[in-house]
Amino acid sequence: MREQATDRKVQYVLDIPFKRTTCRVCGMAYSSQVRADAEVHRKYHTQFTNGVTWPQSLNLDPLSSFAIVRREKSKQLGKLKSSTVSKRVKVHIQTIDKQNKRHIDKVNQILQMVNRELNATDDSKEWMSSKFKFSKAFVVLVEGKAIGLCTTDSINEAKWMVYNTQVIVPNQVMKNIRIGISRIWISADWRQHGLAKKLLDCVMANSVYGQILRKSQIAFSQPSYGGGLLAKAFNGVIHKSGETLIPVYFEK
Q: Is residue 217 packed enough to be buried (19+ CB in 10 Å), middle (13-18) or exposed (0-12)?
């Protein structure tokens, strides 16, 4: 008696390596050939460049309000050419309520982007703790979006760093420091409008109740290249050697 042959079907999975691309603007690595991956990048890129949605229900009384003129590209009707137009927009800066979980979650969402761009580890999180009353998170708001963030630490001393070499000056300690700038960030499409300087002004005026801090009482946490430029312009000091020194501290 002849045995009946059985056909066994085997499913093969085609393993094709997809090339990953790192976005030069937002820094996210993704595979453009994978639809889901590309969509994740698109959403992240939009938030990185133009801000994170900030619901009106999270708004508090602003600490500072002002207008800026923003330059935008606009395509001419029926033409491929684009032109630059100026738009006047209202900007608000507010702090967050440390007891509000939605505030905390939103700031943490922004910090993920900030740390990715700066290639930084997690911050101290003092801004969300009621134990540190002078440590706060300041958010820049425009048209329902958070386009900037500054988180601070409560500190009492700092050191001088040589701007050009990033070398810490030995045996020199500054004792009059009150606030440390842990993270300061403006979304890509809103830079070059002086918003980081406005944030620092707000920090000086609203960190310690009833007191406006001096620039010399502010230090920066291991600033990146862009942060170093900001620190240099904000409270850098020219040493007799000709080098520029900026006050820095190391997060705990």
A: buried
What would the pLDDT profile of 181-232 be if each residue is shown by its tens digit? 999 999 999 999 999 999 999 999 999 999 999 999 999 997 888 889 999 9
HSE, side-chain direction, 13 A CA sphere, residue 161: 23
Among 160, 174, 163, 173, which residue's Cα sits nearest to residue 214?
Answer: 174
Quote the Cα angle for 97-50-21, to 5°. 115
Contact 177, 160 (CB under 8 A): no
Map out the domains of the chain with their CATH numbers: 19-50 (no CATH), 55-249 (3.40.630.30)
C-alpha torsion 36→42→48→54, nearest 10: -80
> Distance between CA 232 and CA 200 in Å, rounded?
13
Query: In this predicted structure, what is the pLDDT of residue 17?
Result: 58
Please state the pTM of the whole predicted model. 0.83
Q: Tell me, what's the pLDDT at 20?
A: 79
Give the largest CA-CA distance in the chain: 104
Contact 180, 223 (CB under 8 A): no
Average confidence (pLDDT) over 35-51: 76
**CB count in 10 Å sphere of residue 27:** 15
